Amino acid sequence: MLALIGVFLGIIIALSIVSWFSINRLSEFQNSPLNTQIADLQNKNNQLEDQAANYQAQISELENQTTILQNRISELQFQNSLLQNNTVRISNFTLNGIDNPVGLVWNIKFIAKIRSDYALDVDGLTLTLNINSNYNIERAIDMQDSNGNIVKWDLQEGEPYAVGVVKQGETKEIYGYIWNDLNDSAKLSGAVFVATLKIGNIVLDEARINM
Fold first, then answer.
1. Signed CA dihedral, 51, 54, 60, 64: sign only
2. What is the average pLDDT score of the chain?
3. What ranges do the domains of the chain cover?
4. pLDDT of amino acid 58
């Protein structure tokens, strides 16, 4: 019996020695220069991964800016092609009669014809209307369709009016009238009615009527 106890004690002592030795070896490994180098390399690797992510974000931003610039260049090239040889223009701008809707008010009608000889359909055109007069008066300009129906009330002077799509080889007619009354009808005498055709901020053509 005592012999067995002695054997067990010997085994326990041996295991304790082995455990103590292993713990010391692990502690030495954790504190070793090699382990420190591994930790440093892992930190550097993490930093490089962060830098790579930042560079990728910058590359994506540059690609987006490049796309925007390419689109702008294409837009300017398109607008320049419209300017060449007066491809899209106001082919006619004239007064088109007078009517008297009510009382001492009458409308001075006008028509503007937009002609496109561009190879493709053109969208994004605008027409602005201004009355240059020596008198400080505001004019109400209403826009109509070909049947006389109002499509835009009280267009302000200088306010862009969307022409819509003008097809290749098409002459599009734009109708409207200047709201006029007895009190200021004489003030239109000597005024200049100006129509300006634009795409974006580019002036394609301009036409005038001496009133």
1. negative
2. 78
3. 2-82, 87-210
4. 82
87-210: CATH topology is Immunoglobulin-like (2.60.40)
Taking only the tens place, the pLDDT of each residue in 106-142 is 778 899 999 999 888 899 999 999 888 776 666 678 8
Farthest CA pair distance, the chain: 137
Instruction: Compute the distance between CA of residue 10 and CA of residue 15 in angstroms, rounded to an integer.
Output: 9
Our measurement of the distance from residue 84's CA atom to the centroid of its chain's CA atoms, rounded to an integer in Å, reads 25
